[in-house]
Amino acid sequence: MTTMTDVCMLSLEDLAHKIAFKEISPVEVTEAMLARIERLNPALNAYMTVTADLALAQAGAAEKEIASGAYRGLLHGVPIAHKDLYDTKGVRTTAGSKIMADRVPDADATAVRKMSEAGAITLGKLGLHEFAFGGTSDNPHYGTIRNPWDTNRCPAGSSGGSGAAVAAGLAFAATGSDTGGSIRMPASFCGTVGLMPTYGRASLYGAIPLSWTLDHPGPLTRTVRDAAVVMQAISGRDPLDPVTEDREVPDFLDGIEAGAKGLRIGVPKQYFWDGCAADQRDAVRTAVAALEAAGAGVKEVDFAQVEAYMQAALAIIVVDAAAYHQPTFPSRRDEYGADVAALLDVGQNIPAHVFASAMRTLAAARGGEADAVLDAHGVDVLAVPTSPMTAPTVEEARDPAIGGRHHIFTMPFDVTGQPVVAVPAGLTPAGLPASISFVGRRWDEAAALRAARAWEQVRGPFPSPAIASQA
Asked: Which element (helix H / strand E) includes 184?
């Protein structure tokens, strides 16, 4: 017998089919999700704000539309949630900060609007590291967000609430933003899929920025196909966001089932292995070997530029952040958490020539240099560990020597602007998720999605955390 707990842990796509064929109603599933949030969120602190009345009203409207034959597609009637830096009309949007604690926007962010237009139901707003400026989601103003696999462990950040909510079955998908790995790191630690698209693929209008130069919007989901569905909905040129490009949005599900056979995978020789914990490294190496056994071609590749991209990212992110926060920092310093304030101090003191050099590195990377790494070796994607470790404890992550390293494998690709899909590689001997990332050329999300889906096919179903069965 299928229970509502089983329903809440379905993939977005499987739920969508049940809704489309009227096997379950949007109201039923929304009520179940709200009850589940009430039971599990106290242990996880994933939600900042639960919009129960809005969700039930949207669910009722979706139910009537679907009954009348006006089905909009795979997101219609599906409960999702948004990182609390995406503006939501009439619902507070804080960016996890004290300074914006009472901020209520009068319009939706473009990504929120597009998902609503596709029929998605908004369950609420998800917690994050303060101003998205950190990788632990240990928020001094709203409390620590916890990892569903072990609530003593860190969910990573900054989209920690998004990763925790999706993994625990408190949303079928969640929006995130990625500036140094803030979609992919929570995906890694929480055992979900995280998609960072090509820079300029989707709009960040109405999203509170961390770095205008590096921010990427994208989804966290439980499957690769679900990530493609959400990315389809939010992609495209937005005249309100000048960095979005006027490019045709392909069908991200087209070709996603092509499988491992004939897929060409490059594994960088440099950077990603020496500093990688053994359990993460072994899981990723095992995944690559399994893809090769399933018919993929695998070769080692030179990626000498990656360290330069990392250094460029470190300079750009702090300078952009310092510029954005200039109206309130340092004048309201006491309203910032200590870790964020320290990073803003760094940003105010980066020499101009260092920032200029970093921007030239970024321009070269996005101008074809990073894609040329794949071209030179004749590969479709790169495969790398998503993070250098599995989820540390909350206390361990408070040590900058640990928490300050979460992003070292993700941040270079925010500079290149290439699409990356992080997907669970398996469970370590300690029972924690490990994660592998597939990197495509700019504008070739299809290759990264195909590779990630091929690994899902080889790997098989991924388990849910124990907390997911408690509600």
From this structure: helix 184-190
Element (H, E) at 5: helix 4-8
Structure tokens at 316: 């750009």
| Distance separating alpha carbons of residues 224 and 393, to the nearest angstrom | 27
Measured CA angle at 223 (ends 115, 275), to 5 deg: 110
- Nearest Cα neighbor of 62 from 124, 116, 14 is 116
pLDDT tens for 87-138 read 999 999 999 999 999 999 999 999 999 999 999 999 999 999 999 999 999 9
| Residues composing the chain | 471
SS3 sequence, 293-322? HCCCEEEEECCCCHHHHHHHHHHHHHHHHH
Cα 363 to the center of its chain, rounded Å: 24
194-235 pLDDT, tens digit per residue, is 999 999 999 999 999 999 999 999 999 999 999 999 999 999
Active site residues: 83, 158, 182
Computed on alpha carbons and rounded to an integer, the radius of gyration of the chain in Å comes to 20
Tokens of 469: 């069965």
DSSP assignments along 14-82, one per residue: HHHHHHHTTSS-HHHHHHHHHHHHHHHHHHH--EEEE-HHHHHHHHHHHHHHHHTT----TTTT-EEEE
Nearest to 185 by CA among 406, 442, 412: 406
Domains of the chain by start residue, with CATH: 4-470 (3.90.1300.10)
